[in-house]
């Protein structure tokens, strides 16, 4: 039983229960607090409206159009097992029917805006100075993407963006029931056909369409191609990869996402730290926090492209959900770095 569940009825209002939690666990993050209170994170933030939060019009093109003026901020994207934090400036976004792009040297995003539902501006006054953020959520109340102010942020532009998206007639917040747990995908039906299609890949972006044609998921495809295009790695491999990239100064690409967004770091990694079950990159402009103990499947993967074969390291949890993906730094039209290829080749293979 949690502290939140033991509060007497007279103290059972959500703000009071949150104050109790904050007093008892001052370092408790919003995500964990929402879980303690038995609500979604979006509902948790909405409960603070009028005090520390403002619910905004979820006009995503207008929101992203205002982000470049903010200057230097921190962009945060996470899934259940990994947090990706990148400091920098937002470049202008472009939106198509089903996806948007932010293509910056610092902040690089693939946005699936049909999953986005709710937007808040939040001011956390429990710290000094107060910590300001924009927070976005899906229709189930799960966090998609957050943006934090910091040194170098233009707070006048921040306030202007908040004001431009503040409206008085927003409908009441509605949160859909949780999505049913996805059923585990069956093994690949025709391994030879998948292998033939895999051999014909011309671009890594063709990979999802190939999976759809074979009615399979990434984990099942990786397992089907063991010995041909994939090799199983031990959990230790991610720690070794990051340390080799740091020691050899090889720039890499780190992809972390959820159903609504993928966030990418491109560049070096330097300070690699293990802390309990967390594997961390703790650099000035890039932080990664990865639950190493939740890596259930790790693969070295080869994908043919028109630029040559590309090597990646791809991580999945016990439910088959993607945790993170690592490539060597490259641009379309360029071959893969030999130094990155050497790192992947040197990683120990699982028995």
Could you explain the architecture of this structure?
It is built from ten helices and 18 strands. Helices cover 25% and strands 32% of the residues. The chain has 351 residues and is an alpha+beta fold. A nine-stranded antiparallel sheet has the order 1-7-8-9-2-3-15-14-13. Strand 17 and strand 18 (322-328) form a beta hairpin. The two termini are 41 Å apart.
Distance between the termini: 41 Å
Rounded to the nearest angstrom, the radius of gyration is: 21 Å
Number of helices: 10
Give the biggest sheet. Answer: 9 strands, antiparallel
Strand order of the largest sheet: 1-7-8-9-2-3-15-14-13
Give the amount of beta strand, in percent.
25-35%
Encode the helix/strand succession as letters.
HHHEHEEEEEEEEHHHHEHEEEEEEEEH
Q: Regions with pLDDT < 50 over 5+ consecutive residues? A: 1-11
Number of strands: 18
Structural class: alpha+beta
**Spatial shape:** globular
Mean pLDDT: 92
Helix content: 10-25%
Task: Characterize this entry briefly.
The protein has helices spanning 14-24, 30-37, 41-46, 60-66, 155-164, 191-199, 207-213, 218-224, 236-247, 338-346; strands at 53-56, 71-78, 82-88, 93-95, 100-103, 108-111, 116-124, 131-138, 143-153, 230-232, 252-258, 261-267, 272-275, 278-282, 286-291, 297-303, 310-316, 322-328. The protein is of the alpha+beta class.
């Amino acid at each position: 039983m949690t502290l939140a569940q033991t509060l007497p009825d007279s103290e059972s209002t959500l703000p009071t229960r949150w104050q109790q939690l904050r007093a008892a666990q001052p370092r408790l993050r919003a995500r964990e607090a929402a879980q303690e209170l038995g609500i979604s994170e979006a509902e948790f933030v909405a409960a603070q409206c009028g005090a520390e939060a403002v619910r905004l019009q979820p006009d995503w093109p207008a929101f992203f159009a205002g982000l470049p003026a903010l200057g230097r901020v921190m962009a945060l994207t996470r899934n259940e097992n990994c947090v990706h934090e990148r400091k920098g400036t937002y470049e202008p976004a472009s939106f198509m029917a089903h996806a948007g792009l932010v293509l910056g040297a610092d902040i690089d995003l693939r946005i699936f805006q049909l999953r986005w539902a709710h937007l808040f501006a939040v001011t956390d006054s429990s710290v000094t100075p107060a910590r300001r953020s924009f927070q976005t959520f899906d229709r189930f109340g799960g966090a998609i993407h957050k943006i934090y102010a910091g040194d170098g942020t233009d707070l006048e532009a921040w306030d202007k963006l908040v004001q431009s998206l503040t409206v008085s007639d927003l409908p009441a917040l509605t949160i859909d029931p949780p999505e049913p747990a996805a059923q585990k995908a069956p093994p690949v039906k025709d391994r030879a056909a998948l292998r033939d299609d895999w051999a014909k890949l011309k671009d890594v972006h063709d990979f999802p369409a190939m999976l759809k044609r074979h009615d399979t998921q990434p984990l099942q495809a990786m397992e089907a191609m063991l010995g041909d295009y994939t090799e199983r790695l031990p959990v230790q491999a991610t720690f070794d990869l990051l340390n080799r990239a740091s020691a050899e100064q090889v720039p890499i690409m780190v992809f972390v996402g959820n159903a609504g967004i993928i966030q990418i770091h491109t560049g070096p990694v330097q300070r690699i730290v293990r802390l309990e079950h967390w594997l961390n990159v703790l650099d000035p402009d890039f932080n990664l926090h990865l639950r190493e103990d939740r890596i259930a499947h790790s693969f070295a993967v080869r994908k043919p492209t028109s630029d040559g074969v590309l090597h990646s390291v791809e991580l999945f949890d016990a439910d088959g959900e993607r945790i993170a993906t690592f490539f060597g730094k490259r641009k379309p039209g360029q071959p893969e770095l030999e130094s990155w290829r050497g790192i992947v080749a040197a990683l120990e293979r699982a028995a």
